[in-house]
Amino acid sequence: MTKDLDTLATALYARIDDELKASPGLAPARPAIGISPTLSDAELLTLAVMSALLGYTSERRWLRRAHRDFRHLFPYLPQQSGYNKRLRAASGLLTSMVRVLARDTSLWSDDVWVVDSTPVGCGCSRETAKRSDLAGWAQYGYCASHSRYFWGLRLHLVCTLGGLPVLFALTGAKADERETLRDMLDTAPDVTATHVGQTIIGDKNYYGREFECDLAERDLVLMRPARKGEPERAGAHLFKPLRQTIESINQTLKGQLDLERHGGKTPAGVAVRVLSRVLALTAAIWFNDRTGQPVKRSLTAYDH
């Protein structure tokens, strides 16, 4: 199997279509009587993944490119408004397919996870913060890794060391990382049930005796650097290289998949654009794993 964008798109479409045939309840709800959409849900998600991999932040520009270069893959392409409405309605399917593809990789069985959050900026001016539809969800926050303040959201990720997204959540910038991790674990009991004794490595923000006891009750082992005034913790020699690992995963989302250039102006718009990028990363890792590539998180073959 060749390693190029057309082949990935074909394999991804077939995988999503097979999953929808096996589990039709995953598809967005539609009236029992009416005209069936010309563009299938599998084609819709494949379009969204290709857009993210090719670095398009404008839906209009992406659909013009798709009309010009990808009609051999998509006999019918909607207008921008129709594409946008369909994609927002398919946010649940996007979330489900991230999990489906992740389970279908060899990386899913890794016994070490890394957890972190990264800023998703939504505006750069005070006027935007006051007038945006995102006000109330988006907040002012501080990114210690890059020593900067921002207005927007945070993408919380639990990944394998190979960069495969296992759990994820999109919250306000000031959301407590520990509470968000708990919520992610609570919403995915099937994941923790199949990863008993899993090691989770986080930064100093994942602290607290009660928090660690809660993870221990879930049969999870937390490793993190010692905070100021604490004695040295087990695995301290691992934290520096592993910190670079999670930063490189975040950089893949930001530098190659344009996470912070999502262009969303409403909660639903931002959510579906972020989900599309998480699915694009998962799909690339899934395809690289299926084709036996040595670097699972490489997107180079698909970004042109």
Question: How is this structure best described in words?
Answer:
Helices cover 46% and strands 15% of the residues. It is of the alpha/beta class and 304 residues long. The chain has a domain at 110-258: Nucleotidyltransferase, domain 5 (2-Layer Sandwich), CATH 3.30.420. Strands 1, 2, 3, 4, 5 and 6 form a six-stranded mixed β-sheet that branches. Helix 2 packs across helix 11 (267-290).
Structural class designation: alpha/beta
Number of strands: 6
Strand content: 15-25%
Helix content: 40-55%
Mean pLDDT: 91
- The separation of the N and C termini measures 19 Å
Number of helices: 11
Outline type? globular
Second rung of CATH, namely the architecture of the domain at 110-258: 2-Layer Sandwich
Rg over CA atoms, rounded to whole Å, is: 20 Å
CATH topology of the domain at 110-258: Nucleotidyltransferase, domain 5
What is the N-to-C succession of helices and strands? HHHHHEHEEEHHEHEHH
The profile of the biggest β sheet is: 6 strands, mixed
* Poorly predicted ranges: none
Under CATH at level 1, the class of the domain at 110-258 stands as Alpha Beta
